[in-house]
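Lecture notes, structural biology module. Today: joint structure prediction for complexes of two components.
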Amino acid sequence: MIGGLFIYNHKGEVLISRVYRDDIGRNAVDAFRVNVIHARQQVRSPVTNIARTSFFHVKRSNIWLAAVTKQNVNAAMVFEFLYKMCDVMAAYFGKISEENIKNNFVLIYELLDEILDFGYPQNSETGALKTFITQQGIKSQHQTKEEQSQITSQVTGQIGWRREGIKYRRNELFLDVLESVNLLMSPQGQVLSAHVSGRVVMKSYLSGMPECKFGMNDKIVIEKQGKGTADETSKSGKQSIAIDDCTFHQCVRLSKFDSERSISFIPPDEEFELMRYRTTKDIILPFRVIPLVREVGRTKLEVKVVIKSNFKPSLLAQKIEVRIPTPLNTSGVQVICMKGKAKYKASENAIVWKIKRMAGMKESQISAEIELLPTNDKKKWARPPISMNFEVPLAPSGLKVRYLKVFEPKLNYSDHDVIKWARYIGRSGIYETRC
Amino acid sequence: MPAVSKGDGMRGLAVFISDIRNCKSKEAEIKRINKELANIRSKFKGDRALDGYSKKKYVCKLLFIFLLGHDIDFGHMEAVNLLSSNRYTEKQIGYLFISVLVNSNSELIRLINNAIKNDLASRNPTFMGLALHCIANVGSREMAEAFAGEIPRILVAGDTMDSVKQSAALCLLRLYRTSPDLVPMGDWTSRVVHLLNDQHLGVVTAATSLITTLAQKNPEEFKTSVSLAVSRLSRIVTSASTDLQDYTYYFVPAPWLSVKLLRLLQCYPPPDPAVRGRLTECLEAILNKAQEPPKSKKVQHSNAKNAVLFEAISLVIHHDSEPNLLVRACNQLGQFLQHRETNLRYLALESMCTLASSEFSHEAVKTHIETVINALKTERDVSVRQRAVDLLYAMCDRSNAQQIVAEMLSYLETADYSIREEIVLKVAILAEKYAVDYTWYVDTILNLIRIAGDYVSEEVWYRVIQIVINRDDVQGYAAKTVFEALQASACHENLVKVGGYILGEFGNLIAGDPRSSPLTQFHLLHSKFHLCSVPTRALLLSTYIKFVNLFPEVKGTIQDVLRSDSQLKNADVELQQRAVEYLRLSTVASTDILATVLEEMPPFPERESSILAKLKKKKGPSTVTDLEEAKRERSADVNGGPEPAPASTSAVSTPSPSADLLGLGAAPPVPAGPPPSSGGLLVDVFSDSPSAAAPLAPGSEDNFARFVCKNNGVLFENQLLQIGLKSEFRQNLGRMFIFYGNKTSTQFLNFTPTLICSDDLQANILGPTKPVDPAVDGGAQVQQAVNIECVSDFTEAPVLNIQFRYGGTFQNVSVKLPITLNKFFQPTEMASQDFFQRWKQLSNPQQEVQSIFKAKHPMDTEVTKAKIIGFGSALLEEVDPNPANFVGAGIIHTRTAQIGCLLRLEPNLQAQMYRLTLRTSRETVSQRLCELLSEQF
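The predicted structure, tokenised, for the full assembly:
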């Protein structure tokens, strides 16, 4: 179990130090600073073992969060906890920065006391935490005994993530399918590896204790349902997707998912992440990058890159950015592009080409002349891949929300009364094409 | 960078560095550097030529980036351009960049060398200095090749400035260290020596460093430096501290130079009397100065003064010829023994160790025994305590052995774990070496086992037993003492081993006393039995069976013990076997047989103490041996007397520690190591003259005979060395590979195999050999190839003589190399008719040799056939009318002639005899072949 949790700034100064177990001494704080933050070479592994003590760290901007343990813990659990911790802090005071942490010193210690007990992670649901850890100073004088006992029963009860008695005038529901698509493509356009990792994020403003049921075009479900009618199977077979693996928010009833593969749950109030998933088959690649690199002698390089958008013309991709790496001995660059803006960024050793908007089924082109300085190293340029960033209003995995039903037996509103919104956003993860 | 003055400061560089320093993260730093690199690249690429200042600035930035740990792959050209600038700062940056960043890139090196050459040729001292520094900093082979000839010229030229001379001397030193083969020796060497007389002390200091290094390799050429160094030293020593101005360091005149001069003098033996007088004066003056009250309280003052003093003392020790000085040095060191500086105490003890081995100062060292013992007890620093132990060991002799051993023993109880084992060994050695009264020896070792049983190695207790068995006078005492020691409630296993062994042998000597009756002895030992490990239990079982012989009255008890299930059905095979056999022996054999089988051990042959070998091994053979040997020689003097010092017997390696010295029941005691009389090696500790070739190793004659019929195999083997052979012969030529395998874990030094041929043999076979590497690592094998040509026929075989140094002793091994005439045999096939025709042609009585001899081996047809083929001739089937006979034919090839050869072997199975007939065209050949072949059957 987690023995202690430290937060450092970029210089390695300790901002927060909370020790949960006796086996972690004060020197552990310094050990991490010396061996990881101040390490000579860049530390790439998120887990470091120093003197039989394991340090798990994540970095948010300039802040280091490190969980320490001497035991053989589940590393995935520790990281899940650290990410959750980041989410909780972000929910309380926004961006995680040195200044914010210093300003919310007491709050963070309060949170740490609550979400970890003797190193075991406890309820880390922001909604639930906010009911009793508040930023408005000490509130307990105003709270009645009843309220307090209500909090206790809720937090320790079966549905710890939702309190009772929530009331909204308008029952509303937002569903976001957020996906990031990763690609590695050969210069000839052959897909070397591609996968989509997606999240379904839900924002619910529902009264009472509603029971929800979520349906999507999961291949297994569709096939199971379509068993009876053969033609439906063939019709929907195209649209259904194969999900490689998925994880759910704790509110989802896993037993029901295991037996019927239906996703039913009582949602927490406000925003939460319903599920995470990954697919590798039949991925829609929103953009195709066609590179053309020609070396003219030892001192010149000509680069031409064409990008093609590959989705419905009615949709608009946004925030498109193509990053063309330049050799390390570049001494000058001339760029011509038809659309958007392109610039050579010496500090990143790359030409960065930005396009604000681009409709589907279009193509655009950039050409650059790179002058090189002859070096005495015979090393050849490694030609790193061209990478790309974008945002498109579709789900590259092909996932479709089929339904989201809400039942509230006690209160008198039905599924039809709930206003539901759904949107799809596909972003680029690591989207690279070799050149 | 001191050269960058305010007016010349590079603002761009300062801004860049402060930018980097302000970066919050590694990523930000890398971004900033990438940006800067791109900027510099575009500047260097630009068509407009850069002025010197900006070139310098950018090169400086590149250097800074490189020092931050990033790769720089351009800018070298610009740096080289800077070299040809006339401004000091630009040139300096250029040189700096080159000495940090340039690798052996061929085209650039030529340009750089050119620039350096120009600077060396310029008469500008600063430029010359920069160039010399660059050469020394790079110090590559290419540099040495280009400038090794030039620098000595600059060094000795009359018009060179002092600062340049200084740089040149140090630069040459550096080149000499990296590639000594490239620095030519010439007439400049004599002029370098005269630099010791230079006005400028800096030049003298630099020159002394150079000369010391050179003199270590070529002492003859720099011999003249001794008198110059002495006179220079005396001038420094006698000067007042203010005379030397810049070179006076905290009131000590030129300490560095003094130390270097003293080091230089340590390369040579004591000089001739005139110079020696002066040197002695100097050394005395240095020793006198040490007595003066310090001129300053600063630590630098005393450090400098002591540095000179210690170097002077090591020179005194090196010369080892002035008793007066040695004693004074010893007294001076004695004062340091109580100094409050830990380093001084350490150094004093270390120097004293070497002083103790000099005959002049040995007595003087001994006067400090109390202080050293005190240091051992009260010193806080473990390394100093270690030195104190070393010194005690070094100063020990017969007069103070008892005291020192007692002190070491008492210290052992509190000693650090790291040095315990060494102390144990030292105590064991000293106790043995200086024992007058062997009861004292036994007491000491038993005490040793009691105090530090875990650190007592096997060798130590083997040695006790050897000594007790060899000396009748202590046996009774030893038995009594171990008996008493064993009565302690908890005693170490090693003590049980010693006790078991000694009581088994000499228990009868104390059996008369009712307090140590046989039964009591047995019960005492048996009470320890269950707490011991298997080897010890095995030893105890042997003790029991010895008891059966010594005390018939306890036979029943012992048989009961042996018969018990825990012995007879023990899981350990060794114990079980012993129990079964001993039980059987005790029931079956009569008392007479028992008495013969279980007789008291005969005395062990004297040999080098195995403990000494172990101590040597622990310290590494090269470092300690000299001192150790010197000491041993002396100890032989001191001991003189009737008993031979253990070391003076010929020494062999550590005996392989056989687990049980008793030997199994009836087996006669086999000493763990080979007794020197076996003569496998002739070793003489004191004779360092390798000229005496050893007599042939026994057994090599057998081996020689074996090799007549085969070409590959092991020729010789003993505990240290294995010699393997692999050879091939074709017509009159042959090649033999000799493999020398070091079977020990220690390096052989001065390993020199030589091939000894008698004169007429030399003429007949030619064998140029390549020398082998003089050091053979432990466990390693080296190979030597010998080419052989048979010029004419010969009878003798060459002798291979091998000499090497193993752990301080010379080893000398001689074996006959199996190069025999028959190796040059070429088989010839012929039909029966041809054979007899030729046989008849060789009917001249001188051409035939016949020999009738008894078979030494079983008469097996197949084996005989194989032997004849191995001998080299063709085996001709169905030639002889009698199928039992063997017939062969072949040609012996020599350079000058080819000698046809026919042989016939007739076995007589009934009489177990052979008749061998050989006919060749030459009488000597027939004779020799007959001799060789008849040996084989």
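Point to remember: The radius of gyration of chain A is 26 Å.
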